[in-house]
Design goal:
- The chain has about 200 residues and is mainly α.
- The chain has one domain (about 5-200): Heme oxygenase-like (Heme Oxygenase, Chain A, Up-down Bundle).
- It contains seven helices and no strands.
- It has helices at about 5-20, 25-30, 35-60, 65-80, 100-125, 140-160, 160-200.
- Helix 5 (about 100-125) crosses helix 7 (about 160-200).
- The termini are far apart.
Amino acid sequence: MSKLRTTLQEKTHAIHQRLHQHPLLSPFVFGNINQQNYVVLLNAYKNYYSKLFEQMARHNFESPMLESAVEKIDADIIAMTAYEAHIPKPQINLKSMNLNEWYGAHYVLYGSQLGGRIIAKRIKEKLTHTNISLCFFEPPIQETTKNWHRFLKNLELNVNQTEACVDFAIIIFQQIENYFWEVFHALEYNQLTVNTEMSQK
C-alpha cells in the first residue's frame, strides 16, 4: 500500500469509526433495520451528494461518481415507490477546491461505495418481505472494484500535496457526520411533536 493511501487511512480512521456508530448508520451495521430508516438514509445521502456535486461544479470540478450515485438513489426511491423524507437540506459551502482536495473528497466517496455492500447485505437479511431496491448500496461488484482501483491509480499519479488531500478527506467525513446528526435530531423533534400532539387530543 502506498504512503499516501496509508496516511489517508490512518488520519480518517477515527471519524470513519464514529460514523459507523452514528444512529442513522448503526442500524445498518448491526442489523436493526426497517424500511423507514432505509428510506431516510437514502434521502440523506441524496441530499448531501447533490449539494456536494453542486459545490464542486461551482469550482469547475466534475464528479461523474456523485452524479451516478444520485441517479442510483433516485432509481431506488422510484422502485420502492418510496417517499421523499422530510429532512433538512445540508448547509455546506466549499469556499475553494483544488485537485488535491478533489481527490481527498473522492477517497471518502469511493470508499463509502465499497462499504455500502455491507449495508446492502444487512438490508437483504432483514427486509426479506419488503419491497426494496439496492441500486445505490449494491452496484455491480465488477463496476465498484474497477472504479476503486482506477481511482487509487489516479490518486497516486495526481496528488502532489498529501496534507491538502488528507485534510479535505477529513472535512468531507465531518460534513457527512454533522449533516447526519442534523437529520437525526430533526427526526427526533418531528417524532416528539407528533407524540405531543397525539397526547393532547
